[in-house]
Amino acid sequence: MPLDLAFARSQFPALSDDEGSWIYLDNAGGSQVLGPVADRVRDYLLTSSVQTGASYGVSALASERLYAGQLAVAELVNASRPEEIVFGPSSTVMIQTLARAITPALSPGDELVVSMIDHEANIGPWLALKAHGIVVRPWQLNRETMTLEVSDLELLMTPRTRLVVCTQTSNIFGQLIPIAAVTACAHRHGAVVCVDGVAFAPHRLVDVREWDVDYYVFSLYKVFGPHHAVLYGKYDRLLGLANLSHHFVPMDKIPGKLQPGNPNYELSYGATAIPEYLVALGERSGATAGASRRARMAAAFDAIADHESLLAERLLGWLRGRHDVRVIGPASSQRSVRVPTISFVVDGIDSERIVRAIDPLRIGIRFGDFYSRRLIEDLGLAAGHGVVRASFAHYNTLSDADRLIAGLEQAMPRTRRKRSEVPRRREPV
Fold first, then answer.
1. Which domains does the chain carry?
2. Angular region, 329: left φ>0, alpha ψ -120 to 50, beta rest
3. Can you name the residues that pair with 231 across neighbouring β-strands?
4. pTM passes above 0.85
5. What b/e string do you get for 258-291 counting C-beta neighbours within 10 Å, with b at 16 or more?
6. In this predicted model, what pLDDT tens digit does every residue of 255-265 receive, in sequence order?
7. Which of 196, 233, 269, 370 could cross-link 65 (Cys pair, CB 3.0–4.6 Å)?
């Protein structure tokens, strides 16, 4: 059953079908926010903005609302219990938090494997552990397949490997990494896994238990929510982490020992609207009568993936028809291959120039390295201001894609090939 696009768009106040309205195609940087999310943030601030943990009624309400946020996100990712959800301001901070908390359990000579196609947030904190005598083994992009290969990971594993760190979806390539296979490989060698799911979570249903990941990080503001983020950890793993809060906070105070100063209460409560929206969307997108909430969310993401594949194909099909364009990542729009985060470069035209030509059209796209600087430099794309990136969300329309293509036609004048010129293969970089 197709996505109920009209219902989806109606839930985002920032979206408008008025002539001259903005088109948001920078969703990988941050999605638009659900109306009920904003309503709950406002309600918390105006009716229960007190410190949690006290015995009086309003404080008890504030505590209930914070806990409701944990329950909602635990449901969203299929965690075993709400205590496995740690809130914080951003994924960058949450990964730094995990690195700080895990360091005391490591010894000089222990090894980490770190994917080098990630956002810097999931590289830099781990490389910094070299100062503690930790050996960091880089898991490099496979130049033949232009993705991360589990077979390459297998070659990096040793008896001293303690942790494997990788992304589930590159915010440049948009390509899906088989996280269940990554986790299985790491666990066979006695290592744990930390996954950056920031670029994945807006497009597919997260299931930390099915994949058996040990730690999973993503940003709620990429998943239709407030500017807040989540670190999931298996309960036993979180128990073993160091206390980052006050000295009198017990080691089994989870997630409190990893949330020094407490999380943002109103944003945590605002997140309760996210799974509710997905359940409602699933009901309108093919979920069977009487289906569980989880099944309804799965139906929502199934419809989302199909719709986003159509959006991706509209742009990718046009890009594949240009002999002067290189798609950075899979040129396929298949939902089993990629999410609709599409990066490209144009021969002879700086990426910044293209994007600035689009800006006056009230279409939001972006250029740059998107904090995946090591990858952009490794691909030799830094000199041209990185890539042009258009990133769709499920609330975008084919009309949005067409307006972007029309703008790109003006910003990227076609070059005429000489008759003797042999067309280049339009392969991913």
1. 5-33+293-411 (3.90.1150.10), 37-274 (3.40.640.10)
2. left
3. 86, 217
4. yes
5. bbeeebbbbbbbbbbbbbbbbbbbbbbbbbeeeb
6. 999 999 999 99
7. 269
